Amino acid sequence: MNDNNIDKHKNERAEAKVTPARSPLLAWVAVGLTLAAWATLIWLDGYAAMAVAAAAVVVGFLAVSGRSTPVKNLAITAIIAATVLLVVLAAFLIVIKIGLGE
Prior knowledge:
The chain is mostly helical and 102 residues long. The chain has four helices and no strands. The chain has one domain (22-99).
């Protein structure tokens, strides 16, 4: 067997595994939406903050797939921060609405 054929097959396998880098834009959009959700909670109301946080979670999950490790970590951090806002705010609103009967 010719050594050139072996090298060609190795190079073809190496080229087949390389995937193009994807833009980290969605991860940064998720971070921006998460920060906007927390700001919305401060300046507007809880329902609007929950809507923006839900959008941040969805964009964060879209940003996780097929990205590099630092971008995945950024998207996961945005997901966690937005989910914390959603859970805490939903629990607070449930206690206020059901517990106090308003």
